[in-house]
Design a protein that fits this description.
The chain has about 375 residues and is an alpha/beta fold. It is built from 15 helices and 16 strands. It folds into 2 domains: about 260 residues, Queuine tRNA-ribosyltransferase-like (TIM Barrel, Alpha-Beta Barrel); about 90 residues, no CATH class. Homodimer. Within each dimer, one monomer is responsible for RNA recognition and catalysis, while the other monomer binds to the replacement base PreQ1.
Length: about 375
């Protein structure tokens, strides 16, 4: 299943004259990725409710795996022995793995941070572990990911400036260790992660340090951690211009369809979020007119599709009434169909954005996106 292309590269193909939107192309060792791109989240070597073939059918170009979870279960060494993550989960396209930083820092009392790394107790069985910049890189290399992330600390919000100063500086030192720990023959791209909380000067400091170290791509971390939407956009506004023009820009853990459109307008190339899959399992569906809660009684006899403007398999074959029945009956098929639709919606949104940027009409695309949401929406 291993497909070898030329080493990682990124090329800007177009830009929209009315905003910062960028149309690009990444080449990885396992395939080409057209940007801007949304990455479905496959935390434990699976995108919940989706066969790999179905992901390919709806246009998924790259999926995301999780270092922390796969390290604990079933173990990166086992996955490596079985041919790597691609063979293990039967996905031939590119995979990005996060470093595990967000997960270990969200453990609260179960973890302790030091200069060496993070000592933590497993949420599964209480066993003790140490995750360092070096071990995070080694785990991701063993998994065989095509894009791997530097180990950093995801700073919560709100946070005192003194804490953010110390954490950002430590993440910078860890980023340098990650760069040094890379196996020269591995072939994966390594992305650095800009931290700094909500402080403009600390974001600049972090971005400048990462640029000095040198990475194949750059991410904004520490967003979608409780801050307001306005503050998130403000951080994007002053942080993204600090990143190299000729490298991909990735905003981690974001977000709603509105967040994606606004991120693209500001020059973001890559997104990931559990929102489409998690909402699907809770009966919340994304449509061109906004969100729809399929559990509501108003859909009991509704023969219409989720979204009349959608051409996905679910909207072509199933009614709101049937999808409501599945959800109320707690049938597994409910999660499968809802997830299929939501991911199709996200991926189709990104595909349409790429076309709009190519045509120099993203500003019109953005305006129409919001105009559709002003129509009457069955909530």
């Amino acid at each position: 299943m291993q497909r070898t292309l030329k080493p990682f590269s990124f090329e800007l193909l177009a830009g929209d004259p009315g905003c910062g939107a960028r149309r690009g192309r990444m080449i990885t060792r396992r395939g080409v990725i057209e940007t801007p791109v949304f990455m479905p989240v496959g935390t434990q070597a699976t995108v919940k409710g989706m066969l790999p073939e179905a992901l390919d059918e709806i246009g998924a170009q790259i999926i995301l795996g999780n270092t922390y979870h796969l390290y604990l279960r079933p173990g990166h060494e086992l996955i490596a022995r079985l041919g790597g993550l691609h063979d293990f989960m039967n996905w031939s396209g590119p995979i990005l793995t996060d470093s595990g930083g967000f997960q270990v820092f969200s453990l609260g009392e179960l973890r302790k941070i030091s200069e060496e790394g993070v000592a933590f107790q497993s949420h599964l069985d209480g066993s003790r572990h140490l995750l360092t910049p070096e071990s995070s890189i080694a785990i991701q290399e063993a998994l065989g990911a095509d894009i791997i992330m530097a180990f950093d600390e995801c700073i919560p919000h709100p946070a005192e400036r003194e804490y953010v100063v110390d954490s950002t500086a430590r993440s910078g030192r860890w980023a340098r260790r990650c760069r040094q720990a890379r196996r020269p023959d591995d072939g994966a791209a390594l992305f650095g992660i800009v931290q700094g909380g909500m402080y403009r000067d600390l974001r600049r400091q972090s971005a400048e340090e990462l640029r000095e170290i040198g990475f194949e791509g750059y991410a904004l971390g520490g967003l979608s951690v409780g801050e307001s939407t306005e503050l998130m956009y403000e951080v994007m506004d002053y942080s993204l211009p600090l990143l190299p023009e000729d490298a991909p820009r990735y905003v981690m853990g974001v977000g709603t369809p509105e967040n994606l459109v606004e991120g693209i307008a500001r020059g973001v190339d890559m997104f990931d979020c559990v929102m489409p899959t998690r909402n699907a399992r809770n009966g919340v569906l994304f449509t061109s007119s906004g969100k729809l809660s399929i559990k509501q009684a108003r859909y009991r006899e509704d023969e219409s599709p989720i979204d009349p403007r959608c051409d996905c398999y679910v909207c072509r074959h199933y009614s709101r009434a049937y999808l409501r029945h599945l959800f109320r009956a707690n049938e597994i098929l409910s999660s499968v169909l809802n997830t299929h639709h939501n991911l199709h919606y996200y991926l189709n949104l990104m595909a349409a954005a790429r076309v709009a940027i190519e045509q120099g009409s993203f500003t019109v695309f953005r305006r129409d996106f919001y105009a559709q949401r002003e129509q009457t929406v069955p909530a």
